[in-house]
Specification:
The protein has 323 residues and is an alpha+beta fold. Helix content is 30%, strand content 33%.
Amino acid sequence: MINAVPLTRVSTEDATAWHAVVSASLAADLPEEPRPTFEQIHAQLSVTGRHDRRLLWLATDADGAVVGVAGLRLFTSSGQQHLAELELHVTPDRRRSGVGSHLLATAVRAARDEDRRSLVAAAPGEGPTGAFCAARGFRRVLALDHLLLDVADADVAEAEHPGYELVSWTGTVPDELAEAFASVKNAMNDMPMGDMDYGSQTWTADRVRAMAEVLADRGDLLLTTAALGKGEMAGYTEIVIRSGETHRALQYDTVVAPAHRGHGLGLWVKAEMVRRLRAEHPGIEEVETDNAQDNTHMIAVNRRLGFRFHRSTHEYQLDLPAE
């Protein structure tokens, strides 16, 4: 018998069990990928976002052993209140025994109770997770390519961009740039999202500050480099180094405002970010990013910088019409 035990407060014991399940699951599905540390998992579970809520469950068997975990992220901001995002892992030795189905049913009920119409989940491009989703009514709505950059080998040749200047910061955006930063961040809404019912996000100065605060609360380091020109922020790129990470950084947003596209600013800010990593964080050897496969422009920018294909991910969506 499988029980889905809800977590209202995450103890060290709960986080330890969650970490063990996720590590075992990822070792089976993505054996070449680095495992999250306990500290990263604990922070993910215990630090609450400012624009979402999380529901968490541990799946236990008849002996009380934790054999699976599920997390449901409920977006709360205007434009995404219809959406929920699922994370689900089962220990390899208990797959095909009903654990995943039980957790999924629990999460679907919760999403319906929260009046969500779309439930999305990510699955490696190869492996059993995609088949699990397809067999339970999910549609594949987006294909992503994950790319890796060897920091030491990146092509960061200097380029001239008359009328523009670079500015960088660590952590929260400086107050004098907050409004401009929020304005250009809204350009993310035209990012290719395939057939996903993703909705839209509205960024304000307060919201960009809140995002940085959440990352800081998790112990993560947020690095941003932006291009300023013509009295406004023209574009930016963000890198996150997770708490305790010593090898790989994660690419977050790279955005150029529509009025400034076509001038090579995306490549410019990303190259400057690589120079920052070399100077400020020499232990970081690689950067991981992901792009929708139809985002040909950003893939081309990343290729010019030196990113190479690493693996693929598929996003699946389960439609939840009102009952």
